[in-house]
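Data availability (excerpt). The following record was deposited with the supplementary files.
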Amino acid sequence: MSIYYSSTRNANDKVTASQAILKGLADDGGLFVPSEIPTLDVSLKDLADMTYQQTAYEVMKLFLTDFTEEELKNCIDSAYDSKFDTEEIAPLVEAEGAYYLELFHGATIAFKDMALSILPHLLITAARKNHVKNDIVILTATSGDTGKAALAGFADVEGTKIVVFYPKNGVSPIQEKQMVTQKGDNTYVVGIKGNFDQAQTGVKQMFNDAEFAKLMDANGYQFSSANSINIGRLVPQIVYYVYAYAKLLKEGVIADGEKINVVVPTGNFGNILAAFYAKNMGLPIAKLICASNENKVLFDFFTTGTYDKNREFMLTSSPSMDILISSNLERLIYRIAGNDAEKNAELMKALSTTGVYEITPEMKAQLSDFEGGYATEKDTADMIKKLYDQTGYIIDTHTAVAASVYNAYREKSGDETKTVIASTASPFKFTRSVMKAIDERYDEMGDFELVDELSKIGNVAVPQAIEDIRSAAVLHDHICEVEEMPNVVKEFLGIK
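Predicted structure:
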């Protein structure tokens, strides 16, 4: 069965999976969604005996129907290899009655590696399949993790260039060092004087600029995206929820068909949307618990049915979630609007003009599988300390937001369903916040002293990603105003 993709703002334009991956964003500014969510065609019992790579094929073949078996398996095998420091790719660790799905064993120690290791391969395969002659320019805004993972994935990939914009004072020191030390003749990293939402809006505007597209084409370039708005990012993320369920089944933690809850720390909504898609493929998931930090725009949305970005932007210790415009939520809105592109476009227009939209009671009724929660900065720090004191297991700030929200949910609801918590980054990526939560005295140490201390007290090896940047030279030091972003791109590409 062939799956096609159309825009959330215009259902009439249908493209293949490879075309959707190449474009990244639809011409009308909408996001590509599949014509239907396919059903898993292998049993959970069979999945329990599969490797991560085999599971990836079984899930992704259902969405990427214009890729041949050989093409898709080549992409999967090229992505999930020795770049990951464990053969399992995404191990599960039990702590305090929950199962932490560790999504940070890739090259840049964050969950973005799970999809951004494969996206370059999908993109290059898609370009060949569609006879693309232009070089592909990956244009991305990052709140910290996507940037480095995309840079690592695309560095020196022939026929591509990558430009990453990040908020200059809105990422952790380790995140920034990872990006600004990135090697590769085709890479460009720029700090903007603004926040992530402004960076993301600037990138979207360039995608939607028809004149810019013409200029690019005349110079042998075309844009594509590595943000989670690209369907080539979203589909690989579905895999690890299926894999986690299969592992729990194999280990006898759950029975075949038994439902689990999934908790995801969420900013841009892509990671939890992938879990929602997995549920709709037939994976037995009960609750999808959406965990926010103090930028709790999603918590408020799930509570009230009103999405309102008109609020103070908070800088927190979980910066990858410091987001007020959750781009991927649009895919969910489209679905609960009955796949009504016109209705969705109307709501998105309201968001861009007034910063607010309200869904109907009928739409809100379809969100009953979702549970919203949020953690304050104190809740987050307390959770890191509590888990370490009780188990010796150390989690990062984003995972702590999820764990805190889960504990509050379990206490309030009495729901004892087996639960998987998406552990989205290594604690080594946010050493200062993590170590300070464990003991205030650590705040006096330098960044790399903290790395070694974390390794010692957590009894875990320092990841290679951190070792690589200890003494790496800064290669990217460009900073610009938000409105200068298009000129910066032209300059990098040598376009007059």
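Summary of structural features: The CA atoms of residues 169 and 453 lie 25 Å apart.
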